Amino acid sequence: MSAALLVFGYTLAVAWSVPLLLSRLTRHGISAGLGLGAWLTAMATVLASAGAAVALLADAAIAGWPRLAEAVCRSVAGRACTPVVYRSAAFEVPLGAAAAVATLTAVVLALRYGRTLQKAGRRTRAHAEAARITGRRLVVTGDGEAGGATVVLDAPQPAAYCVPGRPAAIVLTSGALAVLDRAQLGAVLAHERAHLAGRHHLLISLSRGLAASFPGVPVFTQGPAEVARLAELCADDAAARRSGRSALVAALLAMGTGAAVPDPALAVTSGAVTARVHRLLDPPRRGHHVRYALALAAVMLLLASLSGTVIAFAAALG
Amino acid sequence: MRGFGDLESVIMHMVWDHGCSVTVRELFDELRHERPIAYTTVMSTMDNLYRKGWLAREKDGKAYRYTATASREEYSARLMREALDGGGDTEAVLSHFVAQMGGAESELLRTVVGRLNRRRSR
């Protein structure tokens, strides 16, 4: 029992404290890739240690139940309480019922989540197919087309997005093409290709599933937004490496406002898009980068080794 | 030159460009000038598009005459609606280049762009 409590306490401590630490470490989006890894590690280790705690608790309950059942049985029925009575009535029936209810709940939750994912997957595939048929194929020299074709839809509003699937598609509107120059278009395509290559949609839907299954647990409720934000920054970094920072910033401004933009060199203030612009215009110094990278790597390593140690120790104890 | 894209896409665009109903033979005669293709390939692709709901058809003598069930603009608008204000399910699976912005933020960005453009033209 104490082993289960130890792991349970550790799980709660990590689930509540690590989000505070990580949101500080990833706030500025320095080393976004490692930040994304750290959030995923935190969620995975909390899930693993919670599972271990439940397993240990079930183990302890099963081991301790006969004595408890016997005591209750004797105080109620006195001498009439034989092993046959308390085993069948007080032991097997409620325990069996509890196990059945728990299993059923888990199955129902898993099925419901699976169905949500399946529905989203079907809608995505249908969207990708409709976009491929309706759109006009765009071939850009220098764009590798790795992982999916680029199609253009006739629509006045500037928009660009990628649809995962086999094959995946990158969708641009004619309104987007109208406001982007060649270099900026390259930056947009590189950004979307980074999303597809990094399987960011999977990370986001997985973390959303966890948030839906464990309401009120900070590491899971904050996970999806943080994963989405950091995935965006990772894609920005990939696009900046490929097409240059100024082309990417110009593309962000052009797509955000629907007006063509020359190379920008000006900072702006709050908001998700403005934060991305800010980060690209005012990149962290090299020393800063190294420090954040080391801190995030240390958090990941610590979480993984600590969870492993706690679980192994508790298993040996129980 | 239409490029070697999806045959389904190529055929839908041809049907849309035609405006009126077409037969498999008419599209095949057009396509044959652009690429080596078999009549049966065009026929089965159009049959697929009919099954998926993109094309409607009615019998005209021995052949079918096909029409698009919705215009290219209607499909584009439908996709945009799904992509931009789909929320929920679709939000999880589409990664936008720029998130939908509030009025204040886009106003702010517009000001910056205006300043940049003025500075450039000076």
Class derived from helix and strand content of chain B: mainly alpha
Q: How would you write the strand order of the largest sheet of chain A?
A: 1-2-4-3
Straight-line distance between termini of chain A: 7 Å
List the uncertain runs of chain B.
Answer: 88-92
Strand content of chain B: 5-15%
Describe the protein in words.
- The complex is a heterodimer of chains A (318) and B (122).
- With 318 residues, chain A is mainly alpha-helical.
- Chain A has helices spanning 2-26, 32-77, 83-134, 174-179, 182-197, 200-213, 218-221, 223-243, 245-257, 272-281, 286-317; strands at 136-138, 148-153, 160-163, 168-173.
- In chain A, strands 1-2-4-3 form a 4-stranded mixed β-sheet, with helices on both faces.
- In chain A, β3 (160-163) and β4 form a beta hairpin.
- The longest helix of chain A is centred in the middle third of the chain and has 52 residues, at 83-134.
- Chain B has 2 domains: 7-68, Orthogonal Bundle (Arc Repressor Mutant, subunit A), CATH 1.10.10.10; 72-121, no CATH class.
- Helix content of chain B is 59%, strand content 11%.
- In chain B, α1 (7-18) crosses α3 and α2 (24-31) crosses α3.
- Chain B starts with 6 loop residues before the first helix and ends with a helix.
- Mean pLDDT of chain B is 81; it is low at 88-92.
- At the A-B interface, α3, β3, α5, α6 and α8 of A face α1, α4, α5, β3 and α6 of B.
- β3 of chain A pairs antiparallel with β3 of chain B.
